[in-house]
Design goal:
The complex is a heterodimer of chains A (about 325) and B (about 450). Chain A has helices spanning about 5-40, 50-70, 80-110, 110-135, 150-160, 170-190, 190-200, 205-210, 215-240, 245-250, 250-260, 265-285, 290-295, 310-325, and strands at about 145-150, 165. Chain A has about 325 residues and is mainly α. Chain A has a single domain (about 5-250), classed as ABC transporter involved in vitamin B12 uptake, BtuC. Chain A has a two-stranded antiparallel sheet with strand order 1-2. The longest helix of chain A has about 40 residues, at about 5-40. Chain A is globular, with a radius of gyration of 21 Å. The relative contact order of chain A is 0.18. Chain B has a two-stranded antiparallel sheet. By secondary structure, chain B is mainly alpha-helical. In chain B, about 75% of the residues lie in helices and about 0% in strands. The chains are: A mainly alpha (about 325), B mainly alpha (about 450). Chains A and B meet through helix 3, helix 4, helix 11 and helix 14 of A and helix 7, helix 15 and helix 18 of B.
């Protein structure tokens, strides 16, 4: 392989592969939460993005407190230590909302759209809480070691023109996401409660007849959702930054991911997360340099298919294509 | 209590509140609130047509509002001749290319039978079409945006009277709604919600970034008005006469002080007069929409819509094309929202894409419809008045409550200053809680739907 080809590969890895995998893992974790709520509680949860922000906010506050106490994890971000607090607070939030809001409609057997509107109300309240407590601005809370691989060191070691940067948070995101997903699948496939959840999702009446306690299923679902959303929120915040409005905007890519994969299918949510993330990055990346390495000369324009301002349009386009072509999603999820 | 008494009471209380604002704060402020209430009421009617009549959940109200605003700007601003000369032709070519590509794809899908070949041909023509459009579009954008960017840098509009834009805005919003409805109606009910959320974010992103069209975040200000300007009124003889006559007794007798006081009164009166003109226009639109909505609800069409909403399967079995009716009502409702969007931009006199905040618009309007009473048009109007009034007045009130409630902490307390700084976000929480409470304990709203046969 010529150096140009290797340079092109490194460039691709640096600007597309690594960010794509990271962002994909974050979206997948978020979409898993949406899909679980859909599978068990049977509605599209519009409050999901803001729940993510809520969990992240409490993790940030705890991180700041730990930092002020002089606690740190060495090279790892302190936020990891604060995560359990964030998850616990989110669990309290979602369970309180379930008791006060969703439970009533579940008992009434309301139409799905009523749940959706209720979730919009919940989103409103959660969003207000987050803005009230931490404010609407950007917050940085990552500390510890910043890079796993530095562009400078990579260039020195390989002698290439292009550098590869892997941030610690990117590595962490992937590792934590994989662990969380494995745990989730183990739980759903192997444990009694997990099996009960799947049975309840498949056929509610049959599950109730076989003696499955619906309350327990609902609570467990919310607990898992709280953990997944907080994880997704914290990993996204560590990797980029925390801003309440960005989290609200993440709702669309997460919905797209859940629907593309097949709503109600956990594996579909993961697949969808990576599809959305890579489409977003591939369509908004400026290919000027990459083409330069492959073709030998750089084009005059940026060769960017879409401006980054439209990255949310990408999720929407994917959504539209899937709705037109296969409304149940790639893995054939549920429809009503 | 029946709806008539409740409605009269509700509007009576609102009138009293607004009068109180007029007397305690200022009449100009009172009419500013009234104007926004009227616009919100039109929007709430649009949403009520979708939700109350047909049970369709639209989360993209802000997008349709923004399209109305874009229409107002495009109709009223004079065309920028230089920009048209610089890139107008290429932009037209890009538009033609877009149409060619769309019709090409439709044509290809017509002639090739379902199968691999058709999918392949569709994908290829989408990719090819994208580059074809870009070939004309990118240079056109550069040319237009580099024409005098500090003052223009966009194509401008038609230079027509801004009132026309209220109709154009309706068509813009209807077009977007048709597209979204065509894609997502007939599928699961929450797909429409997600799709509308998506399209509204894209519309806002377009307004913010397509500088050649809307000037983006640089805003287009100074849109021509349908009503007189304050500054002109202040030198119009009949207006001066009226104001002088009105204040004849209260003005000081001393010549110099009299002129000065009169000038002051003229400024106040002219601004109030302009607001009143808008109020008249908006009221006319509101009554017109209300009348149409009322007629539609009473008509067999309204009965059919209720039948579909209450039992889709039964209506389907009776031979009603549910998806088609849903599409129809979704388009009509969005068009009404588009009118309101154009009205709002007309009132503000400027297009500011940066201010279309999804939380504020979409959810406030939803709160209006649900609190007012889903399916009841008068209820939506009442809801619009209550919620908008509450939204505007809650800010100073919340500030005051927090200020008063935390005074014991002392002025240099960090928590107190933090809470004071973030007090405005309390409004979101309050609005959300009110929405949830009404949905839970009084799901039919203040004025429940009555016409249920």
């Amino acid at each position: 392989m010529s150096t140009d080809t290797i340079n092109a590969l490194v460039l691709f890895a640096n600007f597309i592969l690594v960010p794509g995998i990271t962002y994909g893992s974050q979206l997948a974790l978020g979409a898993l939460g949406i899909t679980l709520v859909y599978a068990v509680l049977r509605f599209s949860n519009f409050a999901h993005g803001d729940t993510m922000a809520f969990g992240c906010m409490f993790t940030i506050l705890t991180t700041w407190w730990l930092q002020s106490m002089g606690v740190s994890l060495g090279p790892l971000p302190t936020a990891l230590l604060a995560l359990p607090v964030g998850i616990a607070m989110t669990a309290v939030l979602v369970i309180v909302f379930d008791k006060l809001v969703y439970k009533h409609y579940r008992e009434q057997k309301s139409a799905p759209v009523v749940f959706v509107i209720a979730s919009v109300g919940v989103m409103f309240v959660t969003n207000g809480l987050v803005r009230f407590i931490i404010g609407p601005n950007d917050q940085q809370f990552s500390d510890g070691m910043r890079f796993l691989v530095r562009a400078r060191d990579f260039k020195k070691a390989t002698g290439l023109d292009e550098g590869l940067t892997i941030k610690l948070t990117q590595g962490l995101t992937v590792v934590i996401a994989i662990v969380a997903m494995l745990l989730l699948f183990y739980f759903l496939q192997r444990t009694r409660t997990g099996k009960a959840m799947r049975a309840y999702s498949d056929n509610e009446d049959l599950a109730l007849l076989s003696g499955i306690d619906p309350k327990k299923v609902v609570i467990t679902t919310w607990l898992i959702v709280a953990a997944l959303t907080t994880l997704a929120g914290v990993l996204y915040g560590l990797d980029k930054s925390f801003k309440p409005f960005t989290y609200f905007q993440l709702l669309l890519p997460m919905f797209a991911a859940a629907i593309v994969g097949g709503v109600g299918k956990p594996l579909g949510a993961i697949l969808g997360g990576f599809i959305v993330a890579f489409s977003e990055i591939l369509l908004t990346y400026a290919y000027k340099k990459l083409i330069g390495y492959i073709a030998g000369e750089r084009p005059e324009t940026l060769v960017q298919l879409l401006s980054t301002d439209y990255k949310f349009a990408v999720s929407f386009m994917i959504l539209v294509v899937v709705l037109l072509w296969r409304p149940t999603g790639i893995l054939r999820g549920k429809t009503i | 209590m029946n709806n008539l008494i409740k409605g009269t009471l509700g509007f009576g209380i609102m009138a009293a509140c607004l009068a109180a604002v007029g007397m305690l704060q200022s009449w100009t402020l009172a009419f500013t609130i009234i104007n926004m209430c009227l616009i919100s009421a039109v929007m709430a009617l649009g949403v009520n047509i979708q939700w109350g009549y047909a049970g369709l959940f639209n989360v993209g109200i802000v997008g349709f509002t923004a399209l109305g605003g874009l229409a107002a700007m495009l109709v009223s601003t004079p065309p920028v001749v230089g920009a048209w000369q610089a890139g107008g032709v290429s932009m037209l070519f890009a538009l033609i290319a877009l149409l060619v590509v769309i019709f090409g794809i439709v044509f290809i899908r017509r002639i090739i039978p379902v199968g691999r070949l058709r999918s392949l041909a569709t994908v290829l023509s989408v990719i090819g079409g994208f580059f074809l459009i870009r070939y004309f579009y990118a240079p056109a954008v550069d040319a237009i945006e580099s024409f005098d960017p500090a003052r223009t840098g966009f194509l401008g509009g038609l230079g027509a009277p801004i009132l026309f834009s209220w109709i154009v805005g309706a068509f813009f919003a209807a077009g977007a709604a048709w597209m979204i409805g065509k894609i997502s109606l007939g599928l699961r009910s929450d797909y429409l919600a997600i799709a509308t959320l998506g399209i509204s974010e894209i519309i806002i992103a377009m307004l913010k970034n397509e500088d050649w069209l809307s000037r983006g975040v640089k805003n287009v200000s100074g849109l021509p008005r349908p009503v007189p300007y304050e500054i002109n009124l202040q030198s119009t003889p009949w207006f001066i006469d009226r104001v002088t006559a009105f204040y004849a007794n209260s003005l000081p007798t001393d010549e110099l002080a009299r002129t000065e006081a009169l000038q002051q009164k003229l400024i106040e009166a002219s601004s109030l007069f302009v607001k009143l003109c808008y109020t008249g226009l908006f009221l006319a639109v509101l009554l017109l929409v209300l009348w149409f909505a009322y007629r539609a609800q009473k008509a067999p069409w309204g009965r059919m819509m209720r039948a579909i909403r209450d039992n889709e399967d039964a209506a389907n079995a009776m031979g009603k094309d549910v998806t088609r009716r849903h599409l129809q009502v979704f388009v009509v409702g969005s068009a009404v929202v588009g009118i309101a969007g154009a009205m709002m931009t007309t009132l503000e006199g400027q297009l500011t894409p940066g201010t279309y905040n999804p939380l504020r618009y979409t959810f406030l309007i939803w709160a209006m419809v649900i609190i007012g009473g889903s399916g009841n048009n008068i209820g939506s109007v009442l809801g619009a008045f209550i919620v908008w009034f509450g939204w505007v007045e809650a800010e100073p009130l919340g500030q005051w409550v927090i200020d008063y409630g935390t005074a014991w902490m002392g002025d240099d307390n960090g928590l107190r200053s933090h809470m004071l700084a973030n007090a405005s976000h309390m409004r979101l929480i309050i609005m959300g809680v009110v929405l949830l409470l009404v949905m839970r304990f009084s799901p039919r709203g203040l004025l429940p739907e009555t016409n249920r046969q």
